[in-house]
Amino acid sequence: MNDQTQRLFRMVSSVALLTGVWLIWSEVLPALAVLKHVQLWDIHTPGVGVTGSVTLADIALSMLVLLVTFVAGRNLPGLLEIGILW
Predict the structure, then answer these.
(1) Which of the two residues, 11 and 2, has the higher pLDDT score?
(2) Which residue of 4, 61, 76, 77 is 20 to 30 Å from 48, comparing CA positions?
(3) Where are the domains of the chain?
């Protein structure tokens, strides 16, 4: 197995581990709803006024999406190798 495929298997096992941790700690996760109440700034639309706000939960979610996208992009060659060449 080449290095890219091993990295992909490590990523899949890490996702499985994080899913298990999520299921175990699911009762504590509603406490993170506090992040939705931490308002960082308002979104203003001309003529309408304030149309929404950016919260700390929004920033955390966008960072998570960026991290998953980065990891998936780095492991795309390994995923293609497993999916096409096998």
Answers:
(1) 11
(2) 61
(3) 3-85
63 conformational bin, left if phi > 0, alpha if psi -120 to 50, beta if neither: alpha
Burial class, 78, CB count within 10 angstroms (exposed 0-12 / middle 13-18 / buried 19+):
buried
Say if CB 75 and CB 11 are below 8 A apart: yes
- pTM of whole model > 0.70? no
The string of DSSP letters for 27-62 reads TTGGGGGGGGG-EEEEEEETTTEEEEEEEHHHHHHH
H/E element holding 71? helix 56-74
Of the chain, the end-to-end C-alpha distance in Å amounts to 12
pLDDT, tens digit (0-9, with 9 covering 90-100), for 22-57: 888 878 878 878 888 999 988 888 888 778 899 998
